[in-house]
């Protein structure tokens, strides 16, 4: 029996795809081990969203090659799609974002021939690669990949080039997969994709239609959207938010910048007036909803004044958390050709300041729930305490060890960041 270690870098879509790969390898008789163990096969599912993602992808590939020079080392995913001609001695199977689902047959081919496989698709991906998962071992929430690709072409982003066109999973397959996961005990499902809210643009359906059907599945307690653009929160989607408590009290809505000047340079599809109005509309439906966001700092042309505007915007919008990303130049994107770049030291300092703002906003949101009763899905127990998340993504610590994947109703009595303390 050959052993394999799988390492996932980057987003929830990669997490889903890696879980599918692990399931397929198990079915084929492979022993799944930790990536840090000595294995016969190493698979690195890479990311290329930033320079640091590229560096980590390369580091992990080389680390696997050094750990066992006789192993078959597989690199796949976005970093490889962006660098199809990569040449690292000891790298045996080289895939982009196509044919990840064929990993078992590709490994069979490699072990039969011992020849390097470079399965690089030339051109922009147009077909959805079907995967289907019925189990996420060790997790209380299961991911379902419903969509791939992006057509937005924000000026800083390489992902439309490496993930291809917007394309969607067949609606009946999504419903069946979610139903199977719920039947297998998963109380929370997370819908994920590269551009999740664009689901259905290539099919005779829409994201709102899919949501309407999913929230009616018997036994599904929580449905979470991994991320959605503000322009995709149309009236039909908001009606699902209005009419079904299965859709949780949390939305992750990337803003990326808090000034109209930078939003325009980024080729984002909204201005601040639109964004503020949409957030107000959402809070009119769910007053206590948690809204987290992504923010890029140090984008070309971002003056200190514009950065201060972003801080002010984030505070006014009262986000519950900011995911802060220092601007990272991606070769081939429109912003890589812009001349007014910001010094690295300034970018790092702005990122530090915005992370401090995020902590302040997180605490403000958490404090709203002191003396409130919340329902926690238990994810972990250790040293006499249980830990889990509420639907609106409060991270709660409770004295006592309660069963994994069970609900516990508690009262929030205190905040010990990053936890809410419940009893």
Word description of this protein:
The protein folds into four domains: 117 residues, Rossmann fold (3-Layer(aba) Sandwich), CATH 3.40.50; 124 residues, Transcription Regulator spoIIAA; 88 residues, Transcription Regulator spoIIAA; 50 residues, OB fold (Dihydrolipoamide Acetyltransferase, E2P), CATH 2.40.50. The protein has twelve helices and 19 strands. It is an alpha/beta fold and 423 residues long. The chain has a six-stranded parallel β-sheet, with helices on both faces.
Mean pLDDT equals 97
* Proportion in β-strands: 15-25%
Largest sheet features: 6 strands, parallel
State the share of residues found in helices, binned by percent.
25-40%
Radius of gyration: 22 Å
CATH level-1 class of the largest domain: Alpha Beta
**Measured distance between first and last alpha carbons:** 48 Å
Total count of helical runs of at least 4 residues? 12
Q: Which structural category do the helix and sheet elements fall into?
A: alpha/beta
Taking pLDDT < 50 over at least 5 consecutive residues as the criterion, the unreliable ranges are: none
Lateral arrangement of strands in the main beta sheet: 2-1-3-4-5-6
CATH architecture of the largest domain: 2-Layer Sandwich
Which of globular, elongated, flat, extended, rod-shaped describes the shape?
A: globular
Taken together, the total number of domains comes to: 4
């Amino acid at each position: 029996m050959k052993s394999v270690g799988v390492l996932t870098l980057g987003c929830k879509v990669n997490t889903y795809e890696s879980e599918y790969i692990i399931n397929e390898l198990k079915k084929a008789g492979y022993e799944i081990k930790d990536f840090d163990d000595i294995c016969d096969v190493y698979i690195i599912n890479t990311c290329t969203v930033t320079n640091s993602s590229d560096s980590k992808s390369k580091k992990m590939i080389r680390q696997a090659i050094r750990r066992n020079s006789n192993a078959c080392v597989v690199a796949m995913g976005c970093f490889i799609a962006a660098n199809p001609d990569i040449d690292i001695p000891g790298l045996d199977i080289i895939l982009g974002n196509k044919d990840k689902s064929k990993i078992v047959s590709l490994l069979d081919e490699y072990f039969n021939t011992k020849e390097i496989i470079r399965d690089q698709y030339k051109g922009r991906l147009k077909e959805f690669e079907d995967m289907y998962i019925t189990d996420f071992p060790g997790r209380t929430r299961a991911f379902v990949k419903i969509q791939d690709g992006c057509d937005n072409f924000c000026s800083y982003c390489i992902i439309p080039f490496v993930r291809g066109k917007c394309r969607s999973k067949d609606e009946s397959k999504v419903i069946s997969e979610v139903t199977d996961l719920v039947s297998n005990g998963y109380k929370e499902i997370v819908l994920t994709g590269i551009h999740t809210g664009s689901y259905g643009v290539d099919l005779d359906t829409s994201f709102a239609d899919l949501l309407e059907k999913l929230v009616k599945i018997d036994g599904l307690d929580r449905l979470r959207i991994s991320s959605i653009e503000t322009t995709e929160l149309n009236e039909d989607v908001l009606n699902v938010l209005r009419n079904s408590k299965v859709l949780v009290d949390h939305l992750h809505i990337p803003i990326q910048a808090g000034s109209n000047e930078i939003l325009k340079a980024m080729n984002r599809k909204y201005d601040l007036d639109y964004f503020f109005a949409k957030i107000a509309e959402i809070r009119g439906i769910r007053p206590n909803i948690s809204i987290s966001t992504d923010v890029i700092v140090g984008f070309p042309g971002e003056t200190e004044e514009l950065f201060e505007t972003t801080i002010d915007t984030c505070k006014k919008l009262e986000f519950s958390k900011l995911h802060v990303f220092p601007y990272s130049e991606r070769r081939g994107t429109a912003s890589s050709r812009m001349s007014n770049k910001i010094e690295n030291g300034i970018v790092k300092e702005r990122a530090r300041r915005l992370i401090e703002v995020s902590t302040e906003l997180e605490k403000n949101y958490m404090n709203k729930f002191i003396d409130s009763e919340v329902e926690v899905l238990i994810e972990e127990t250790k040293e006499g305490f249980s830990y889990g998340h509420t639907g609106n993504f409060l991270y709660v610590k409770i004295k006592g060890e309660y069963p994994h994947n069970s609900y516990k109703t508690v009262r929030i009595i205190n905040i010990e960041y990053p936890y809410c303390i419940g009893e």
